[in-house]
Amino acid sequence: MFNGEQRVTRKPVKRVHKQARDILIYGVSIILAIIYLVPFYWTVLKAFRNSIFANFPPDMNPLSKTSLAYFLTNLKTVWGFGDFPLWYLNSVVVSVAVVAGSVFVGSLAGYAFARLKFPGRDLLFYAVLATLMIPFPVISIASYVFMLDIHWLSTYQGLIFPQIASALDVFIMRQYFMTIPEEVEFAAKIDGLKPWQIFFKVSAPMAAPAIAAATIFSFISSWNNFLWPLMEVHSLNLFTLPLVLNFFKGANGTQIYWNQMMTVNILTIIPTVVIFALFEKYFIRGISIDVSAR
Question: What is the C-alpha to C-alpha distance for residues 290 and 174, in angstroms, rounded to an integer?
C-alpha cells in the first residue's frame, strides 16, 4: 500500500519537473532569439531612414509609408555608388565558385576517408581535422606570398582557390558517408557500376543533406570573408561586398553613413537567407550526423 502511494505521488512531481524544465528551455530560447533579432531590427530601422541620424521623434515602424520611401532612396543611392553592381556580382561569382569547388572536393575527400582503405588513412584524416584549429591569419602571409609567386594577385582565381580546401566540408561529408550502409554500394557494384559511377549515381545523391549543410557553411564563409579579399585584391574592379562597406565612412573615418551602410547590409543578407531557405529542408538532417562514426 505504501509503495503504491509512493508511485502515485512521484508521477505528478516528475510531470511538474518536466513542465518547469520545458518552461525554462522555452524562456531561454525566447531571450536568445530577442538578443539575436535586436541587431537585425536595428539594421532594418537604420536602412529605412533618410539621413545618418535617427529621426525624432523616432519612427519604430520600418514598414511605414515614409520609411519605405526613405529605403528606396537609400537603395537607389547605394546601387548607383561607384561600381556597386559589379562588386555585388564579384561576391556572387566568387562565393558560387568557392561553394562548387569546396563541396566537390570535400565530397570526394570525405568519400575516400569513409570508404577507401589505405595506409595512414585515419592519421591523414585527423591531420586534416587539425587544420580547423589553425586560424587563417596564421597562414595568411604564406598564402599571400604563394599567390604573389604564381602571379595570382588581384585575380578571380586568387580569390577563389585558397578558399576551396575546407576541412569542415571534408568532416561533414566523411561522417555522413559513414552512415550510409555499405551494402547499398556493394549492390551497385554487383550491377556493374564502376567506383566513380557508384559515387556520383548512388552515394552522392544519398548524401544530399550533408551536401546541403556543406553548401550553406561554405557560402556563408566565402560571402562574409573580409581578410583574404582585403589582402589579395589590389584593384577596385575585384572588390567584394565586405570591402565595399568601408566606403560608407567619411574621409577621416569618423562620420559613418549608417542609413546607406545598413542598406548594403540588407543587400548582403538577402543571398544568405535565400541559400538557407533553399537548403533548409536538408540542412538539419545534414548536421545531425553521428560524429562517432568510424
Answer: 10
**DSSP structure class, residue 234:** -
CB 102 within 8 A of CB 213: no
pTM, full prediction? 0.83
Residue where a domain terminates, one of 51, 75, 99: 75
Q: Are residues 94 and 222 in the same domain?
A: yes
- pLDDT tens per residue across span 177-193: 998 898 998 898 888 88
Residues 96 and 230 reside in one and the same domain: yes
Please report, as a single letter, which amino acid is at residue 198. I
Q: What is the CATH number of the domain that holds 161?
A: 1.10.3720.10
Amino acid identity, position 25:
I
Whether 18 maps to a domain, the answer reads yes
Using alpha carbons, list the distances in angstroms from residue 183 to 115, 175, 240, 291.
Answer: 12, 17, 46, 21
Domain that residue 85 falls in = 80-287
Residue 99: name the closest of 238, 13, 223 by CA: 223
Mean pLDDT for the stretch of residues 22-49: 88
pLDDT band at 2 (very low <50, low <70, confident <90, very high): very low
**pLDDT value for 77:** 92
Please list the helix, strand and coil fractions of the chain in percent, rounded to the nearest 5, in that order. Answer: 75, 0, 25
Q: What is the pLDDT of residue 11?
A: 54
178 and 252 fall within a common domain? yes
Contact criterion met (CB below 8 Å) for 276 and 216: yes
Beta bridge partners of 256: 249
207 and 94 within one domain = yes
Residue 144 has phi, psi (to 5 degrees) of -65, -45
Is 199 or 3 the better-scoring residue by pLDDT?
199
Residues 104, 210, single domain; the answer is yes
Pairwise CA distance, residues 40 & 59, whole Å: 16
